[in-house]
Structure formats: C-alpha cells, structure tokens
Amino acid sequence: MLTSEPLMREIAEDVVIAPDPREDERRLQEYRALLSNDAVGFLVVCDGNVVQCNSSAAHLFGWNAADLLGRSAAIFFGSDDEFQSFGCRIGDALAADGSPATEWRTMRRDGSRVWTRLLVKGITPGGPAGETVWMVEDISARKEMEAALAKAREDLEQRVRAAHDELAWSNERLVAELYERSEVEERARRIALYDELTELPNRRLLESRLDEAMRNHQLGSDRLAVLVVDIDEFTKLNDALGNRGGDAVLRATAARLVDTVRTSDLVARTGADEFAVVLGRLRHTDD
C-alpha cells in the first residue's frame, strides 16, 4: 500500500489542536472519517496503546483491525526498548508541534519485518505519550530496489577494482617484459661486440671504431696509430697452466693494456692471444 509524502503531510497538517472545543470536535470527526479511508494506513495511539485503526494499517501489519484495539503499539516493534527508541526519535519533533517522519523495520504479526514509513502527528499534548495519529506506508518495494541498486553498485565497483588490478598487473608485467627484453638486447649487443673473457671490444667493434677514427683523422691534422700485440709462446703457456691459467693470463694482459693507454684510446682482443690498440689524437711520431 503506497501513498505519496505530500498527501500524507497534508492529512497530518489537518490533525491539529484547536483552542475552541467545538473546533476540536469537528477536527476529531474529520480525522475519524479519514480512518475509514483505506487508501492510507492510519493508526491512533493514545498512551502507547492502539485506540483506532483502519483496515489498511491492520493489513500492513498482518492483523485484523478489531484485534489491534487496546494493544500496545510496541507490537509493531521488536521489543519495548525498540518502541522506546522510536518514541525518543519522534518525541522532540512532536513536542515542537511538528510531524516527524521516519523509516523503520516494523514487526508484523507473524514476526516478519516490513520496512514502513511512519508519519506521526500529535492530536493532544504530551508528545508520544499523548494521543497521536500515525500514517503508515509500506516502503518494502522501494527498500528492495535500493538494496538491489546498492548491490549492483557494489558489484560494479568490484568489477572496476578487479579490472583496475588486472590492468595494473598487466602494466607491471609489460614493464617487466620490456626491461627483460632490453636486458636481453643489451646482452646480445655485448656478445656481438665484446669479448666475453676479457670484456674488451672484439674485432667487429674494433673495425667499426677504426673506420670512425680514420674518418676523424682525415678531417684533422692529428696522427693515428694502431698497435698489434700478442703473447709470445702463449700456446705453450696455456698447455702448461691449463685453460684456467691461460684465461687468467689473457685477462691480466687485457687489464695491463687498458691501464697503460689513455682513456680515449681503444684496446680490443682480435684473436686467441692477439690484441690491438688504437691510439688517436697523436701530435708527433714520438707520442
């Protein structure tokens, strides 16, 4: 049973305390006429007990109207404490001659709960303890829709978070793959251009750097020298010391050559026991 808030408030504003007893009686007759209107659920509660009830309100709470009369309005709540909490919520507004409205999960006769909107108006002084008229509206359908929307919103947010996490993971994986690829490419470049044992430039890089040095030499007045160095009787030495010993001699020779020349010069390994040194920017032959 649904009714609009403006209609409920308009009806509530008609139920007022009149200073003239005759006017008060007329208003009470009008409000009793409203009780017969089944389009809106009405209860009249006095001193906490139901004294009037129309069929719409009784049906909403699962009762017959006659069975509700004289019962405590606490039957619409889960406990006396809950009823008192409801009274505290509307009490201040009633004391100020207001028409408080609240939403509550009220109790049906069979013990089930129903979301109800309650608009309360005082008929006599005394706040919740006086005589009040309750206009009740079943808002279960709206609450179910709100719950469904909330769940749909939560599901959507979860899917968005999952998609965001998946995208973040994909981006991290892409960055890792790019880094791994760059490392692989760098290793491949070093293998192609550098000697693995001595970490010196190999013959391929030497030829490239030598061509570049020759072009620079032709454009300037500086001299260019290329030294070829080998280790005498390295084969015998390698046989005597073994491969590890021979490798150690090659690494030591490479390090000695690098330490001997300038940082601008180039030392490369061109063969098993052969090295080449490119000396650029020489002013004189004695250099």
List keywords for this structure.
287 residues; alpha+beta; Alpha-Beta Plaits; five-stranded antiparallel sheet; three-stranded antiparallel sheet
Describe the structure.
With 287 residues, this protein is of the alpha+beta class. It folds into three domains: 5-138, Beta-Lactamase (2-Layer Sandwich); 140-193; 195-282, Alpha-Beta Plaits (2-Layer Sandwich), CATH 3.30.70. Helices cover 52% and strands 20% of the residues. It has a five-stranded antiparallel sheet with strand order 2-1-5-4-3. Strand 7 and strand 8 form a beta hairpin. It is rod-shaped. The mean pLDDT is 84.
Rg calc: 49 Å
Low-confidence stretches: none
Total of DSSP H or I helical runs spanning 4+ residues: 8
Mean pLDDT: 84
For the biggest β-sheet, the strand order reads: 2-1-5-4-3
Brief overview:
The protein is 52% helix and 20% strand.
What is the element layout, followed by pairings?
Blueprint (H helix, E strand, L loop, with lengths): L4 H10 L6 H15 L5 E6 L2 E5 L1 H6 L4 H4 L11 H16 L5 E7 L5 E10 L8 E8 L1 H54 L9 H17 L3 E8 L3 H27 L5 E4 L4 E9 L5
Antiparallel strand pairs: 1-2, 1-5, 3-4, 4-5, 6-8, 7-8
